[in-house]
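Recap quiz, item 2
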Amino acid sequence: MGMEKTTSKKILTFGLVLLLLVVAAGAPLYAPVYTVILLTSILMYMIIAVSWALFSGPTGYISLASAAFFGAGIYTAAIVGKALPLPLMIGAGALVSACLALLVGALTLRLKGIYFVMFTFGLVELLLHFILWWEVTMSGTTGRVVPPAGNATVFYAMLIILAILVLTVFMIRRSRYGLALSSIGENEEAAAHAGVHVTALKIIVYAVSALFMGAAGAAMATRWTYIDPRIAFNPLVSFVPVLMAIFGGIRPLYGPIIGAAIFTYLEEFLITRFPYYYMLIFGIFMVVAILYMPDGLVGLTQRVWKKMSRRNHADT
Amino acid sequence: MSRPLHRRNSTYTKGHPFAGASAPVVMGSHMMVTILDIVISGLLLGGIYAVTAVGLSLQYGVARVLNIAHGEFIMLGAFITYSLYTRLGIDPLICFAICGPVVFAVGFVLYRTLFTRLRNTSPTPGAFEGNSMLACFGLLFIIQNVAILIWGADMKGYTYLAFSVDFWGARFAANRLVTLGFAIAICLVFYLFLANTRLGKAIRAAAQDPDTAGLMGVRIHRVLALCFGFGALMAGLGGALISISYQIQPTMGLEYTMIALIVIVLGGLGSIPGSFVGGLVLGLVGSIVTHIEPGLSLVAYYVIFMLLLLIKPTGILGK
């Protein structure tokens, strides 16, 4: 009975995802421009949160370098944007970002725990201040202009990136590499002794997660059109997706997706309703989420569900 | 005389009040005087770095909270001093006695409520470190935006002891010398407190092993909360010192947090004397780099930080 139930559940989930994808893909055809722009932001945060959770979720290494990878994508787009068509530009952003992650990964092999966190966040600030200095003294500018693409184009680009990302994460988790990744999080030394090539795996998965962040950055750059180092390497991009992923639940694939959707919508709602208090409310929301929902929304619903079903059993 | 000087190079160092700030008026172009300038400017910067870093070191080294919102406590101290001086005319040096306890109370209460709860609900110490860091990030938003609502988002500053003092041919603003003196005095008093009092001993015990310290009769939750409070206190006093010689802004926190982080890694995580020495060293580095290429001082800090993490993560005075 269990087997049948899981198969039918899988088909149901698959169907739901497909339906959602179709409804979302049609958005530019029937929804107002504002909704399309909002959906693009939501997709952007979904991509960053899911890519973050791809590496940090199972391994337990909290990376705060998301802003660096995202920013690398943005800056690459700004530099090559005039010469290359959109898909190639996104590819270039993804590639630069992944290379950066390979370098960082190779350098930070030995760092664990809080040292890794500090290093990755230091990277964002280092890039920000170095590029700021470089732009002012060497190239004599503070900002760059990226050739704009239409709202719908950016939206579809983001949707495609997210779809590929979700597929990739799904495949990695199902493969033995996904299992190996979790084993690193449980006990790295034991994983190494059991024959997992710990170092190589960590670096490659880190690079894959950066690849998608860079692609998202390059695509978003065409929507923002004007960028400068402070926009590109905004430290918020390192923190907010982490909170989104935790809010939604890190373990399941859909956790960060749900978290990103709710948080981005909340941000938009608060900005329009309470422009002066929005960051304040956002901060309170973060603290409350971490205090009362350590396993995220998914964990919370599971807990409530368990409690309710237990009560049913007790009644009968 | 001091105010316009601090705003030099402000075109691209908007978020960083220190870049270009450490250039005293040079009387002679003599080589020795230049070196003296750089060294003393570095110590002036370093003194402030040291005070704030000692606070962060206490919070992370003992209370195990990587307080990303540390800079917000610095900012609070700075703005409380600013308000007391400009509105009520209270001397900034006397303000220490007011803003110190206020910021301490905020830190103490936060630990007793928020972090104690997190500590109890987190399954492992590692999970507590991660969760508390993210909670601190939420706090950063809350404190910063409350400050913007109260004081507005603009740069603020006041003049205090703005006359200059001769120092073997180099000239320094009196307020910065007072700042350095107080910074050293604060660190010294705190060190003596840790070394010689009963509570200081309890804090040192908790730093070594909180569980065993608890078994030995240390009221561990209270001591950890006190540590967090003292960390906030040091941040507040550091902020008060900063407000004497530099421009302040509600969004200034993160930059100072990052510098304090670099300093505690430089000095060795959890080592109080290390943080003090690390602060002075980083101040000197900042002053030298600013002398050569003003825009690169922050970049230099991060390069040092990352090299240090890679080569010797235990820092210069770490075990």
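Strands of chain B lie at 164-167, 170-173.
Chain B is about 70% helix and 5% strand.
End of item.
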